[in-house]
Specification:
Beta-Lactamase, five-stranded antiparallel beta sheet, alpha+beta, 2 domains
Length: 245
C-alpha cells in the first residue's frame, strides 16, 4: 500500500492541454493538493514546455515534467528525496511504462485509466521508495552513460583516424604515381640529352677532320704523293760532218 511508503507518496499522469489527471495512485491526502497544482496556469506553462520542476512544501516535494506529446508525470516525494532519482529514474520510467501500454490517454477522462495502470503505479512507487538502492542504480546509470559517451567519442575518433589514414594512403599513392611519372620523364630527358651530346661530339669530330684535311691539302700544295720533276737540258743529237779530202 502507498500509505506504508516513506519516500514516494503519490504518482499522477496528466494531460496537460486540459489539465486532466487520467491516472493516479498514492496516499489520498495528497490528491487535493495535486489537483490544485495541476489546475494552476503555471503548471500548464511549465509542463507543456518540458521543463523539470520541483516545488517543496515542508517535508514534501512536488516533482513534475512533460513531454512533447502533451503528457506530464507528477510525483510527490519526500523533500529529501534526490532530484536526479525522481526525474531520471521514477518519472522517466513511469512515463515510458505508461506510454508502452498504448492507452488512449489523449481522449481519457478524469482518472479513467487509474484502475488499469494501478498495478504498475504501485510497483513503481514501491520500487523507487528505496532510496539507497535506487541511488546506487542512478550512479550506475550515470557511470554507464559516461562510458557510453566515452565509447562514442572514441569510436568517432577512430572513424576520423581511419578516414585520415585513408586520405594519407591516397596521398601516398598519388606521390608514388607522381614519382614514377617524374622518373619516366627524367629517363626520357636523360636519353634526349645523351643523344644531343653524341650529335655534338660527332659534329666536333667531323669539323676537326675537315680542318685537318684542309691543312694537309694546303701544306702539300697539290704535290703530295707525286714524282719529283727532272732537272737539266734535254738530250741533243750529235751529228758528225765528214771531212773533205
Amino acid at each position: 500500500m502507498a500509505s506504508k511508503l516513506n519516500n514516494v507518496f503519490y504518482l499522477a499522469f496528466v494531460r496537460v492541454a486540459e489539465s486532466v489527471i487520467v491516472a493516479s495512485y498514492g496516499q489520498p491526502e495528497y490528491g487535493d493538493k495535486v489537483r490544485e497544482l495541476v489546475a494552476a496556469p503555471a503548471f500548464r506553462a511549465k509542463a507543456g514546455a518540458g521543463q523539470r520542476m520541483r516545488i517543496k512544501n515542508g517535508n514534501v516535494a512536488y516533482n513534475f515534467t512533460g513531454d512533447a506529446q502533451g503528457l506530464a508525470v507528477l510525483a510527490v516525494t519526500a523533500s529529501s528525496y534526490p532530484e536526479r532519482i525522481v526525474f531520471t529514474g521514477l518519472i522517466d520510467d513511469a512515463c515510458e511504462r505508461f506510454m508502452g501500454k498504448g492507452y488512449m490517454w489523449n481522449q481519457a477522462g478524469d482518472n479513467t485509466l487509474s484502475r488499469k495502470f494501478k498495478g504498475d503505479m504501485a510497483a513503481l512507487c514501491k520500487e523507487y521508495d528505496d532510496v539507497n538502492s535506487k541511488d546506487k542504480i542512478a550512479r550506475l546509470r550515470q557511470q554507464v552513460s559516461v562510458v557510453q559517451s566515452t565509447m562514442q567519442s572514441n569510436i568517432a575518433k577512430a572513424i576520423d583516424n581511419l578516414e585520415s589514414t585513408e586520405r594519407l594512403e591516397e596521398q601516398s599513392q598519388d606521390l608514388m604515381d607522381s614519382a614514377q611519372t617524374f622518373q619516366r620523364g627524367a629517363k626520357k630527358l636523360a636519353w634526349k640529352e645523351w643523344c644531343m651530346l653524341m650529335k655534338m661530339r660527332f659534329m666536333i669530330v667531323l669539323v676537326v677532320l675537315i680542318i685537318i684535311g684542309v691543312i694537309i691539302g694546303v701544306a702539300c700544295n697539290g704535290q703530295c704523293g707525286g714524282e719529283p720533276a727532272a732537272s737539266g737540258g734535254g738530250s741533243g743529237t750529235v751529228s758528225t760532218t765528214p771531212a773533205s779530202s
